[in-house]
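User: Predict Vitamin B12 dependent methionine synthase activation region's structure from this.
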Amino acid sequence: MDETLKSKIKYFENIPAVPNKDRILSRLGYRNGVTELKASDLSLIEDCIKQGTYLCQPSGAYINIPIKEKSVSGVVLDNNISLMSESLSKLLKDSHSVILMAATVGHEVSKKVFTEIEKGNASAGLILDSVASQTADAALDWLVQMLNKMLIREGKKLTKHRYSPGFGDLPLLYQKDIFEALELFRLNMALTEKFMLIPEKSVIAIAGVEDKGELNI
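Assistant:
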């Protein structure tokens, strides 16, 4: 990557990401007012949330890259990454640049999930897995909120939605381009031959930067 762009990558360690308990339960299939939880279930959930939150080490990175070309079928960025997706192109229709971002919760919590399942504690493993997933999402939410606070000073904002490779018509293979653009190996992350992120509880996303309009000061 161009050295100028490299210098624009921002890394964050120890992101204060707090997983949403309701989303953790929802991911586990619990429905408020429908699913009955025993005292022992509630105790296990609370213990696993505390343990999972302790083991998660949220970190992340982002870079703001100008859009060089736009078409109905996709966009080309200044670093020559081509993101071919009609859905993404629609999302970025009013954007002049994109934020490539990523968040991970590290390896320790995944090791614990594997250990619990190997020991026959499937319930604990599933709860820890849910905690890790929600913490990764919360870390990405933190990045988005932080970026919006910075951008608003410039009369800009992020698109309402963000888009990830592997969803809609944006192929998973684009994880490789974004992984390399963000040099995610610096966060102790890796990518498999099938473009899956390691640690498993890691996320990559794309959001557009667009003008907010007239500021009311």
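The helical segments are 3-6, 21-27, 39-55, 86-91, 108-118, 122-152, 174-182.
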